[in-house]
Design a protein that fits this description.
Blueprint lengths: L25 H9 L3 H24 L2 H18 L9 H24 L22 H15 L4 H11 L5 H8 L3 H20 L2 H9 L1
Length: about 210
């Protein structure tokens, strides 16, 4: 199920109003936002930075729809935090960091979903998988909390290998150099961690939702 586009932060340029065009700089946008003109400021904010955010997302994801979804999520998160922006960097730098984090989460989700086909077989495979995004950032946070609770049930060595491979995207050779564990043992650790995680999530509501919406 695809998340509906947010009307206030809609990505297309035709949402930009003549009034918003008056706000041409980041300082003007921030001043308007803090003065209580949030809708006007946010419209100008999106217009000013949408090409940049989409460009960064596309370089990370190499897919038009995924990049549009990422940009939508970036501006949703940024709009919720814009009032807290302290000016320690430029807005563009701030948005860049948010965009990278959003894209990393999307890539991790895609890779994670591909793991479910591994749990039924032997060894590690790279499997193309659809991305089933949660309907909201709140639901994503709920899943992250659930996933972390599942990770806690995985034996320490298996959990360490999984996290270094999955989150840090390290090669087995690199993990071996760090931990002093043989690559064969690391592959076994990773395999059993994936099987345990996949088995746990197959019995969860999240797997049912993804399967029904897939």
């Amino acid at each position: 199920m695809r998340r509906p586009r947010c009307a206030t932060l809609k990505f297309e340029q035709d949402t930009v109003t003549g009034m918003a065009l008056i706000l041409e700089t980041d300082s003007e946008i921030l001043e308007a936002y803090r003065a209580g003109q949030q809708d006007r400021a946010l419209t100008a904010f999106v217009r000013s930075h949408q090409r940049f955010v989409y460009s960064v997302a596309f370089r990370q994801l190499s897919h038009v729809e995924d990049s549009q979804d990422a940009a939508q999520e970036v501006f949703l998160r940024a709009s919720q935090k814009l009032g807290e922006f302290k000016g320690e960097s430029t807005l563009q730098t701030w948005l860049y960091r948010i965009t990278i984090n959003v894209c990393l989460n999307m890539r991790r989700k895609r890779r994670f979903l591909s793991f479910f086909s591994i749990g039924e077989g032997e060894g590690e495979r790279d499997v193309a998988a659809k991305q089933h995004a949660t309907d909201s950032h709140a639901q994503q946070s709920e899943f992250d909390a659930f996933f972390n609770s599942v990770l806690e049930t995985v034996p320490p060595k298996q959990r360490e290998t999984f996290c270094m491979r999955y989150y840090d995207e390290l090669l087995y050779e690199e993990i071996s150099a760090i931990t002093g564990t043989s690559e064969g043992a690391l592959k076994a650790n990773y395999h059993w961690a994936v099987k345990k995680i996949a088995a746990a999530i197959r019995t969860s509501e999240y797997y049912e939702q993804w399967r029904d919406n897939g």
